[in-house]
């Protein structure tokens, strides 16, 4: 087995490390039953166990009836879909499986709400779920997911075809890339500040920038939808 898969001492909060990422990737690449068993027992299962437990407590899914049974069921289900993970699509295993796990429990919440004959707007649950149902003190979990989301989107952004872009659209596209590349060196407090940066970089007025951003919004929405559905 690769040296990358050597066991490392577990640090607080860092239960799903590069070691576990590599173990999952290797699991999907080999057909050897013995190697898969070793990878799953020693690396993948412990990471999945802690990830599921963290998500259940962080997002207050503990309110679900039979939550202990549901946790075990979810962990088993994650094992059955390991083969669906494709590292070549750019999504980290942590993000991929944590999003799928949250969506799995949200589905259980939805089903429970139906049983209780309560009307809940689950179309907006991704946006309002934390405000309505959740309180979290696990900043590491959320911050890591946010960082990986934007890093994946940046990689997606760089792959967009620019050959047919109009002049203004190309200026805005290049400016967006500059903002991503300079994110550690600039301070953005609100939406207005972003427009000011875009105006300064492109030389365009706000209306021209807005018109270009509208064209990019659909691509972003499609990316976000695929991310939330675990398709990246």
In brief, what are we looking at here?
With 232 residues, the protein is an all-alpha fold.
Structural topology:
Elements: H1 18-29, H2 33-58, H3 67-80, H4 93-115, H5 125-133, H6 139-158, H7 167-181, H8 191-202, H9 206-228
Helix pairs in contact: 1-2, 2-3, 2-4, 7-8, 7-9
What does this structure look like?
- It contains nine helices and no strands.
- With 232 residues, it is an all-alpha fold.
- The protein folds into two domains: 136 residues, no CATH class; 68 residues, no CATH class.
- Helix 1 crosses helix 2.
- The longest helix is centred in the N-terminal third of the chain and has 26 residues.
Give keywords.
9 helices; 0% strand; single chain; mainly alpha; 232 residues
């Amino acid at each position: 087995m690769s040296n990358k898969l050597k066991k490392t001492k577990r640090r607080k909060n860092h239960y799903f490390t590069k070691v576990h990422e590599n173990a999952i990737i290797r699991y999907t690449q080999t057909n050897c039953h013995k190697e898969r068993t070793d990878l799953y027992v020693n690396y993948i299962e412990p990471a999945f166990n802690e990830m599921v437990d963290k998500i259940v407590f962080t997002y207050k899914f503990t309110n679900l009836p039979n939550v202990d049974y549901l946790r075990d069921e979810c962990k088993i289900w994650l094992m059955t879909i390991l083969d669906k993970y494709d590292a070549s699509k750019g999504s980290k295993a942590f993000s991929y499986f944590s999003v799928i796990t949250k969506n799995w429990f949200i589905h259980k919440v939805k089903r429970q709400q139906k049983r209780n004959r309560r009307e809940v707007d689950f179309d907006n649950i991704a946006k309002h779920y934390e405000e309505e149902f959740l309180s979290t003190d696990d900043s590491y979990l959320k911050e890591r997911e946010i960082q990986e989301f934007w890093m994946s989107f940046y990689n997606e952004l760089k792959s967009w075809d620019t050959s047919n872009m109009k002049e203004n659209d190309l200026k805005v596209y290049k400016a967006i890339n500059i903002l991503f590349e300079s994110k550690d060196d600039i301070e953005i407090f609100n939406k207005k500040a972003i427009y000011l940066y875009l105006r300064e970089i492109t030389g365009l007025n706000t209306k021209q920038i807005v018109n270009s951003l509208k064209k990019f919004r659909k691509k972003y929405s499609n990316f976000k939808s695929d991310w939330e559905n675990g398709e990246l």
